Amino acid sequence: MNRTGRVFLVGAGPGDPGLLTIKGKDCLETADVVIYDRLVAPDILNLSSSFAEKIYVGKERDHHTVRQEKINELLVQRALEGFTVVRLKGGDPFVFGRGAEEAEVLREHGIEFEIVPGVSSAIAAPAYAGIPVTYRELATGFHVVTGHECASSPKTPWELLASPTQTLIILMGMSYLPVIIKKLLQHGRDPNTPVALIRSGTTPHHASWLGTLGTIVDLAQRAMIEPPVVIVVGEVVHKAKDLDWFHPEWAADISQTIKGEE
Asked: N or C: which terminus of the chain has fewer CB atoms within 10 Å of its end residue's CB?
């Protein structure tokens, strides 16, 4: 091949294959190479051609199968070889997915690329648990942060994140849950503020736990909850008792759980 290929940075969505966009599906069906992440559902990956080269570059906590620099090299290399490449990323490429960094590398090498947005787990996981991230009179807005940056950065605006009128959504935050909860309490958030932990949201393994800022750390430790988890903090969590549609049986005891009762 003597032409330069094109790279599509595609959001695979939060896990439910039905939440993949039509454009994302079209890209997969025509891709020569698919470079994909850990949380991409097998049914989504299977939309690609059986002849397509599939390269796994998943990252787990404290273990990266392929470092980001190598992923960048793969994208550039396969595109320069003339292939149509899909970089398949969980959620949305530009929501904590390092998609912008990959796009910058492609631009530096003169490679054409296209961003195909995906549904972020920050929105979808709460929705499947019956939790609206905004609700008139309860939450006028929401903030999405990552656990590592939130817990370790000296620039974290805790006063803003602790606002009772805002929903706080934390991705990749289970390892930092005690630190984050402590900071929120120190900056004035009410200990009775409800908190949801939503594991593997939108997938068949979807599970939710409810508590408050005062009880959630102990609950998480006793339940031994493992990632991937979306953490939701705010009064909107109360809405799950009426709006949970994916696992309505879980919502039946939500009022007791929020109070921290067994």
From this structure: C
Q: Are strands 229-233 and 207-212 parallel, antiparallel or unpaired?
A: unpaired
Q: In angstroms, what CA-CA distances link 137 with 108, 140, 167, 184?
A: 46, 7, 12, 21
The token pair that represents 64 in the structure block:
């990266």
Instruction: Give the catalytic positions in this structure.
Output: 37, 59, 172
Q: What is the pLDDT of residues 114-127, one digit of tens each?
A: 999 999 999 999 99
What percent of the chain clears pLDDT 70, i.e. is strictly above it? 91
Please tell me the pTM assigned to this model.
0.91
**3-state secondary structure string, 54-97?**
EEECCEECCEECCCHHHHHHHHHHHHHCCCCEEEEECECCCCCC
Listed residue (237, 232, 246, 42) closest to 144, CA to CA: 232
Domain(s) of CATH 3.40.1010.10: residues in the chain: 6-116
| CATH 3.30.950.10 domain extents, the chain | 121-258
Of the candidate CATH numbers 3.40.50.150, 3.40.50.1000, 1.10.101.10, 3.40.1010.10, the domain formed by 6-116 belongs to 3.40.1010.10
CB 170 within 8 A of CB 216: no
Q: Determine the number of helices (DSSP H) and then strands (DSSP E) in the chain.
A: 12, 12
Tokens 């149509």 correspond to: 84
DSSP state letter for 256: H
Average pLDDT along the chain = 91
